[in-house]
Amino acid sequence: MLCWNKKLCTLAVLLAICGCIGIASGNLRRPAKVGLVCCKAVSKAMIPSGIKLIGYKHQNALSPCVQAVLFFSETEKYCSDPTARWIPRKLKGLKVIKD
To answer: Mind telling me which residue stretches traverse the membrane in this protein (predicted)?
Structure first.
């Protein structure tokens, strides 16, 4: 027989069940982030002054994403080349948007 006695078998089964429940419920505690904003290309063109920007964030290059500064308006996102000379002026007064 595989189990030496009934108590030991019962304990082993209960531990296995508790372990499975613990692993399954662990996934429920993780935040569910749905949308990923990722620039795959950038532009050095200046964002027109008539567009009201609400914030920005820096993006690191991690394929397929490229190194970028993302500017956000109420409805759009703009993927800008971080080496563009106008970027530091545009960042002034904007809040950093966290992930």
So the answer is: none
Q: Which tops the pLDDT comparison, 38 or 23?
A: 38
pLDDT digits (tens, 9 = 90+) for 27-77: 445 534 334 669 999 999 999 989 999 999 999 999 999 999 999 999 999
CA 96 to chain centroid, in Å, comes to 15
Burial of 48 from C-beta contacts in 10 A (0-12 / 13-18 / 19+): exposed
Rounded distance between C-alpha atoms, residue 30 and residue 51, angstroms: 36
Amino acid at 58: H
Dist CA 58 CA 68 (whole Å): 6
* 22 φ, ψ (degrees, to nearest 5): -65, -40
Q: What is d(CA 94, CA 54) in angstroms, rounded to the nearest whole number?
A: 6
Beta-strand (E) ranges in the chain?
53-59, 68-73, 77-80, 95-96
Torsion of CA 83, 86, 90, 95, to 10 degrees: 10
